[in-house]
Amino acid sequence: MFSLADVRFLPEQPHHAAAIEAIADEAFGPGRFSRAAERVREMAPHDPSLSFVAELEGVVIGSVRLTPIRIGTTPALMLGPLAVRPAYKNKGAGKALMRLAADAARDTGERLIVLVGDPPYYAPLGYRSLPPGSVIMPGPVDPRRLLGLELQEGALEGIGGAVKARRRGLP
Ligand SMILES: CC(C)(COP(=O)(O)OP(=O)(O)OC[C@H]1O[C@@H](n2cnc3c(N)ncnc32)[C@H](O)[C@@H]1OP(=O)(O)O)[C@@H](O)C(=O)NCCC(=O)NCCS
Questions:
Q1: What is the pLDDT of residue 170?
Q2: Is 65 inside a domain boundary?
Q3: Ligand 1 atom showing the smallest separation from residue 95 Cα
Q4: Which of 61, 97, 110, 131 shows a CA-CA span of 20 to 30 A to 4?
Q5: How many domains does the chain have?
């Protein structure tokens, strides 16, 4: 058994990449590359400074990534994948990773995060459904699973358009 207090949360480093891929493969299976969220991540690299791993005794047990995107003309971040290895679930690591990523993004002036996921998991973290049809992903998505989080008040109001790649720090 382990406790969340034993877990170290760290910004993603290049040497974490293989473990992160393995965890995502385990969580989502071989079909994951056909998912719309994965297509967004193929268009644009994630930002390692806004991506985190959970480590237990030096082993990566979970991770979360944020990818800079644009929704229409609005700068945003796409969250995912979020995954925790099965043996380490239900101890709070997933939510801790989510909070860490959102706090880091807010601290750098980012305004909003979107993701595709299960509303019951993300609602307690402040995510809410986006108006159907407002955010156009590069592939089919169940509109009930398209969720957004305001990092700054009002940031989700009126957003809409196609999701495109963005490089942070560029106009
Ligand atoms: C989703 C996931 C990241 C959660 O990680 P975790 O470390 O177990 O999460 P936490 O410990 O912070 O939270 C666990 C709680 O969330 C609940 N939960 C987990 N997955 C859920 C889901 N899909 N829908 C609703 N609730 C969920 C658990 O039942 C648990 O509830 P409790 O606190 O009332 O017991 C992990 O289960 C996972 O990797 N799943 C496979 C990949 C995945 O689905 N990723 C999310 C993409 S949508």
A1: 57
A2: yes
A3: 12
A4: 110
A5: 1
Is the residue at 170 inside a domain? no
CA of 170 to the centre of ligand 1 (A): 34
What is the pLDDT of the chain when averaged over all its residues? Answer: 94
**Domain boundaries, position 158:** 4-165
Residue 56 counted as domain residue = yes
In the block, which residue shows the tokens 């049809």? 133
CA of 63 to the centre of ligand 1 (A): 13
Residue 171 lies in a domain: no
pLDDT digits (tens, 9 = 90+) for 67-91: 999 999 999 999 999 999 999 999 9
Residue closest via CA to ligand 1's atom 28 equals 90
Rg of the chain over all Cα atoms, to the nearest angstrom: 15
Cα–Cα distance list, 21 to 26, 75, 84 (Å): 9, 26, 12
Q: Alpha-carbon distance 13 to 111, whole Å? A: 24
pLDDT digits (tens, 9 = 90+) for 102-121: 999 999 999 999 999 999 99
